[in-house]
Design brief:
By secondary structure, this protein is mainly alpha-helical. It is built from 13 helices and four strands. The strands form two sheets. A two-stranded parallel ribbon has the order 1-2.
Length: 376
């Protein structure tokens, strides 16, 4: 009896030691409220320590990306697993997330259009029409702000917005979403595999979708192969790259080599003031942000027309013509728009060469990756 008591004391001490850091102020352990061993006093997350109602083990995923990409922004409490990504992929393509089971994330973010849409504005529940062009989902793991105006700063937070947007998925509350998912034959097992519980929770819905979106990495274009010495560029593509990456075309400031976006907000001279859409200002309330929008990645730009936050340009030729024109002046136009009133003065041949380079950013392995496609 004494031996059994001593053994219990040792086990209790060891379990406590696992959950507590040596620093008495920093308490390490499980912060997931639906876990069996959730502790409200935790200050340092250790969510791989969480225990749930399902007896399951997850398979970690390590993202593979080029050295000229930044470190991916993956929260410690939502590390990628094969099971979590699989669940997120199903949720991404499933209209069960919308109020009338007609609209999924993939309804607007289509793989064949670089996870954007080929219409100026996308359609939601009851064919309601959106107010901005659908942004592409390419290399989102390496970005810090999402949506054209940067209203969200994580993929988990971003996934909430369309669920309750009256134009998009038009849900009223989490209860109705979770009831639909919990009632399905598919999802309890998938949630069990991914998060160790068949008790479906809103946070796990968002975490799974974000996990899947972080795997959408594009880094195998003709440009990447040229950069690695695997293929040769044509003379036109070489000249187009020179135009792109020098003051001849002045593209590289906002769309630098690598991600081909600087993840910063710019007023690129689309309109004179006053602006119909105030852009970043709607988030920051800073007058200097009026008319500023996030620079999108140019990877797979061949497939992501129409272009700009309002989808005003149907072709790459129109985009190039806008910058060749120099843009419209306004009190908040970005200082990088240095050719307003003058223009780039590109010749027709130079415009064609610039377009030829932009087409080298197409990544067929990304566009046709079966791991990104509809699982149903």
């Amino acid at each position: 009896m004494n031996k059994l008591f001593s053994l219990c004391l040792i086990i209790t001490f060891l379990c406590t030691s696992c959950d507590r850091d040596e620093d008495p102020v920093a308490i390490r352990g499980c912060m997931d409220e639906i876990a069996i061993n959730y502790d409200p006093d935790i200050t340092v997350p250790c969510n791989h320590c969480c225990k749930y109602s399902c007896d399951t083990e997850v398979t970690p995923i390590n993202l593979i990306y080029p050295s000229n990409f930044p470190t991916p922004d993956i929260p410690i409490w939502n590390l990628l697993t094969e099971e979590g990504v699989n669940l997120g992929r199903h949720l991404f393509y499933d209209p069960i997330l919308s109020s009338d089971n007609t609209v999924s994330c993939a309804s607007c973010h289509k793989q064949e259009y670089a996870f954007g849409d080929n219409t100026q504005y996308s359609f939601g529940v009851n064919q309601a029409v959106g107010e901005r062009n659908t942004p592409i989902l390419v290399n989102s793991a390496f970005q810090s702000y999402f949506d054209w105006d940067g209203k969200t700063s994580s993929l988990e937070d971003q996934a909430v917005r369309p669920l309750f947007n009256e134009i998009e998925m038009h849900n009223n509350n989490w209860s109705e979403i979770l009831n639909r998912i919990q009632s399905s034959e598919l999802y309890p097992d998938l949630f069990c595999a991914a998060f160790g519980t068949s008790n479906i929770d809103s946070s796990h819905v968002l975490m799974a979708i974000a996990q899947f979106e972080r795997t959408l990495i594009s880094s195998n274009s003709r440009f990447d192969k040229w950069l690695n010495g695997e293929v040769q560029f044509t003379n036109e593509e070489i000249d187009g790259f020179d135009i792109y990456n020098t003051e001849r075309g002045d593209c590289f400031h906002c769309h630098p080599i690598g991600l081909f976006t600087n993840n910063i907000f710019h007023n690129n001279g689309l309109d004179p003031s006053p602006f119909l859409d105030l852009g970043r200002y709607n988030v920051t309330q800073n007058p200097l942000d009026e008319g500023a929008f996030k620079s999108p990645s140019l990877r797979n730009i061949e497939f992501s027309a129409p272009y700009m936050h309002d989808g005003r340009f149907a072709t790459l030729e129109e985009v190039i013509d806008h910058y060749d024109f120099g843009g419209h002046d306004s009190p908040t136009v970005d200082p990088l728009m240095k050719y307003i009133g003058v223009g780039l003065l590109l010749s027709p041949e130079e415009k064609e060469n610039l377009k030829a380079f932009l087409l080298t950013l197409s990544d067929q392995s990304f566009m046709n990756n079966p791991n990104f496609s509809n699982p149903f």
